[in-house]
Amino acid sequence: MKLRFTLFLCLAPSLLFAQIKLSGRVTDNRNQPLPYANVLLLTPTDSTMIAGTVTNSEGGFLMENITAGSYRLSVRMVGYTSVTLLQDIFVDKTLETIVLTETATTLNEVVVKAEKPLFEQQLDKLVVNLKNNVVSAGNTVLDVLERSPGISVDRQSGSLSMNGKQGVQVMINGKLQRLPLNVVVQQLEGLTSAGVEKIELISNPSSRFDAEGDAGIINIVTKQQTDLGTNGTAMVGIGYADLSGFWKPTGSLAINHKRQNLLLTANYSLVQDNRWQQWNYERQLLTPNLYSNTITDRYASWPVQRAGLGLEWNINKTTSINTLVAGFSDYWKMESFNQSRVMLNGRDSARINLYDREVNHWKHLMGNVNLNHRLANGARLSIDLDYLYYHDHNPNEFTNTYSYVATNQVVQEQVRTGKETPISMGVIKVDYETKWRTLKLELGGKSTFSRLRNTVSLENMVGEAWIADTRFTQNYSLRDDANAVYVNVSGKAGPKGQFQAGLRAESTDMEMTASGQRLFSLDFLKLFPTFFYTWQATANSSLQVSYNRRITRPAYTSVAPFVIFMDPFTYYWGNLQLKPAISNGVQASYTYKDLLLTLKYSQDRNAIAGNQSRYNSEERKTYIYADNVDQLQLYAFTASWPWKVTSWWRTQSNALLTYQKTNHVYAGVPIELNQYSARLSLNQTFTLPGKITLEVSGVYASPITVGLSVRKAAGVVSAGVQKVINDYSKLNLTVTDIFWTRNSIYVSDNPLLGQIQKTSYYNEPRVLRLSYTVTLGNTKMKSAKARTTASEAEQQRVN
Q: What start and end residues bound the annotated signal peptide (predicted)?
C-alpha cells in the first residue's frame, strides 16, 4: 500500500521542550538519493507512530522535538524493501546512510517487480532506465542514446550533442572515458545495451565532476549484483540489415558471485557488425568554375570484444576495497569504392576511381583500485588509482585511377598511409565528504598524466618501390598533465529550499612536439564555479535554477596532423591552431508531478565545431577539419511528459526547441548565422495479453547550425516487441530506422568560403534484431535482505 506523509509530529506538549533532533539520508544501493521515502518513528513494543516525515529531493530527512528514549525507525518506499532499525535516542543524532534495495517479491510463483519509467527526472539529471525497455533490447548503447531526450548522434563525425550543444563527455560507471569523442562514439556503437541498467544525462554537472565538456556528461551505469549467491545474465542475438543483406551476430555473458562481504564479477561481450555505408560529397568552387561529385560505398567488418574482472571486498563495516581489470578489442576492417566526377566550366574534365582498404584496430587495457573508508565522525574518504593503456593501429592502402576526358589519358597511382598511436594514462583521485552542522561538505582533488605517441606516414608507389612523402610523414608526441581541486557545499535554504554551491580549479599543461620541435601547447589555470538552488513549492511541484562554467579542450585527434582521403582533392585534416572553448550557462527547471520544463541559455567563446570545410586555392584542394567559432549563443527549451493513456498504453513525449546565434570572422569579414531548430521524440508502449509488450519510438530533428554549416532535417522510427517466456527468460525482436531517415546531410553555402558544399552520409536502414536473454541462478530477493540495518547496508558496494 502506497503511503504519502507530510511532516507529521505527534508529541505531547511536555515533550516539545526536549529539542532532540534525528536526521539521516536514504539512498538506493548505488548511492542515488531516494526522495519522498516515508520515514516513521515507532514505539518498540506496539509500533505506535510517534513521528513521521518524507525525504527531500536529496534523500535527507529531519525529525525534531523528539523525547529521549528507544524507538524503531521504519523507512519505506514503494518498489523497495523496507528497512527497520532499533535506535536509542538521547541526544541529537545523525544516522549512517540508510540503503533501500529494489523489491522483487515472489507470490504464488508469480514474480512482481518494481518497474521504473523509461525516463526519470532526478535532482541534477535525467535518467533513461533500460531494464525493461523493449526497443533497447539487442541494440547498442548508441542506438539508445539516439532516442534519448535532447541527445543528437552524428555517426559519421563521431560526435554527440546534448540540448543542441556539442562538447559532451562520456562516463561509464562514473569513470570518464579518456579518449577523443569520435573514438568513444565508435566504442558505444559496439557496446550492447544488455549489460546497461540506466543512462544518466547530466546537462549541468556540479563541481564534483570534471569541468571538461561544455554540453554536459552522459554517464552509462552497468548492471550490478545485489543478491547473495551466484547468478548472471546471458544474451545471444542475431541482426539482419535489409538493404545490404549483412548479418550481425551478438552475445554477452555476465556472472556474479556475492557473499556477505565479497563480490566477484566477470563479463564478456561480442558484437559483430557487418555494415554498409555511403558517403556523397558535392562541391561547387566559385573560382574557378569547378564542380565535383564523389560517391563512396563502404563495406566493413567490425567485431568488438569486451571483457572485465572485478572484485569488491568489504573488509569491515567502515572500509572496502574494489579492484577492476577490463579491456576491449575494436577491429574495424573496411573496403571502400570511390567514384568521382570532375567538371570544369560545365564540361567533363576527369573521372576518378579510388579503391581503399583500411584497418583501424583499437586495443585497450585498464586497471583500477578503489578504497572507500568511513571515518569515526561519519565522514567518507574515497581514493581511486587508475592506469589505462590504448593502442591504435590504422593502415590504409589506396589505388587511384584517373581518366582525363580531354586527352583520353588514364593514369593509375598507389598510395598507402599508416598510423600507430600508443596512449598511456595514470589517474589518481581523492574525494572527502563530511557534514558540518546542517551542511554537507565535499572536497577532492584529481591528477591525470597522459602520454601519447603518434607515428603517421604516407608513401607513394614509384616504379616498384614505396617512396615516403615527407609532407605527411612524421613522429608526434603529446604530453598532457591535468590537475584539479574542488569544494562543494550543499544544504537546506529555508523550509522548502535546497542549495548546492561549488568551485573547481583546473590546470592544464599540454604540449605536442614533432622531432623535438613544439607544434602546439596549452598551459593555463582556470576556475569553474557552479550553483544550484531548488525550491519545493508543493508536494507535486518544484523549481530549480543553476549556473555553471565549463571548458572543452581540443581532442588530440583534432589537433594532431593526420590525413584521411575523401578523394584526391578532399582531405580530412588536423588543426594545430585549435583553441579550448569556454562556456557559461544558466538553467531553470520546473517540475509538476511527471511534467518537466527546462529553459537554458549558454554562451561559448571559441566553440569547437567539427567537419568544417576550407578550400585552399593554391593547392586546389579542400581540407575538412575541426575549427573554432568566435562566439556561439544558444537558447534551449525542453519539455518532457509521460502519459498513461490506459492501463495497457503509456506514452513518453519529449521536445527540444533551440535558437542558435553564431558569430565568426573569416578572412576579415564578419559572418552571422541564426538558426531555429526543434527535436521531438515520442515513445509508445503497449502491454498486451500473454506477457507481450510492444513499443514504437520516433525521433525528428529539424535543421541545425553546426559551425558555419547547416545539418539538414533527419529522423528515425523504430519498433520492438518483447515476449516474457517465464521468470528467467525473454525474447525480443526489434527493427531500427524503418523508413531510412537516419542520415546526416551537411550544407555549406557561404560565398566567403569560396565554395558551395553538400556532404551526405547514409547508414543502412531497417536493421532487424532478434535476441534471447536468460537470467542464470537465483533471481529472488534473499530473506536476509528484507530486514537490514544501516551499518549492514554500508557493506554493499557504493558506486
A: 1-18
pLDDT mean by block of 10 residues, the chain; 799 residues: 33 42 86 83 66 80 78 82 80 86 52 54 72 62 76 73 79 75 74 78 85 84 72 92 92 88 91 92 78 91 93 91 94 93 87 92 94 90 95 92 87 90 94 90 95 89 90 85 95 88 95 84 92 87 91 78 66 80 92 86 88 73 81 91 88 91 81 89 91 91 82 91 89 92 84 76 90 78 30 24
Rg (CA), the chain: 28
CB atoms within 10 A of CB 467: 10
Domains observed in the chain: 8-103 (2.60.40.10), 121-780 (2.40.170.20)
Q: Is the peptide bond before 568 cis (omega within 30 degrees of 0)?
A: no
**pLDDT score recorded for residue 607:** 86
Task: Compute the distance between CA of residue 534 and CA of residue 543 in angstroms, rounded to an integer.
Answer: 6
Contact 270, 305 (CB under 8 A): yes
Q: Cβ distance 562 to 615 under 8 Å?
A: no
Instruction: Tell me how far apart the alpha carbons of residues 448 and 146 are, in angstroms, rounded to a whole number.
Output: 31
Taking the C-alpha atoms of residue 302 and residue 15, their distance in angstroms, rounded to an integer, is 71
In the numeric block, the cell 541545425 is attached to 704
Cell of 366: 585498464
Contacts of 436 (CB under 8 A, 6+ apart): none
Euclidean distance between CA atoms 576 and 512, whole angstroms? 9
Cβ-Cβ contacts under 8 Å for 792 (sequence gap 6 or more): none
In 3D space, the residue among 124, 106, 110, 55 whose CA is nearest the CA of residue 83 turns out to be: 55
Q: What are residue 150's phi and psi, to 5 degrees?
A: 80, 0
pLDDT at residue 397, as a whole number: 93
What is the number of other CB atoms lying within 10 angstroms of the CB of residue 359? 13
Q: Which residues contact 541 (CB under 8 A, 6 or more apart)?
A: 590, 591, 592, 593
Distance, CA of 667 to CA of 535 (rounded, Å): 49
Q: Is 672 helix (H, G, I), strand (E, B) or coil?
A: strand
* Residue 181 three-state SS: helix
Other Cβ atoms less than 10 A from the Cβ of 644: the count is 12
Can you name the residues that pair with 498 across neighbouring β-strands? Answer: 492, 534
Cell reading at 740: 531510412
* Cα dist from 592 to 29, 123, 539, whole Å: 27, 13, 9
Longest dimension (CA), the chain: 108
Grid cell of 36 as nine digits = 519522498
Is the pTM for the entire model greater than 0.90? no
CA 675, CA 706: separation in Å to the nearest integer?
Answer: 10
- Overall residue count recorded for the chain in this entry: 799
> Which residues, at least 6 apart from 676, have a Cβ–Cβ distance to it below 8 Å?
657, 658, 659, 660, 702
CA–CA dist 325, 321 (Å, integer)? 14
CA proximity to 73, closest of 57, 55, 58, 56: 55
Element (H, E) at 510: strand 497-514
Reported as half-sphere exposure (CB side, CA atoms, 13 A), residue 770 has a value of 3
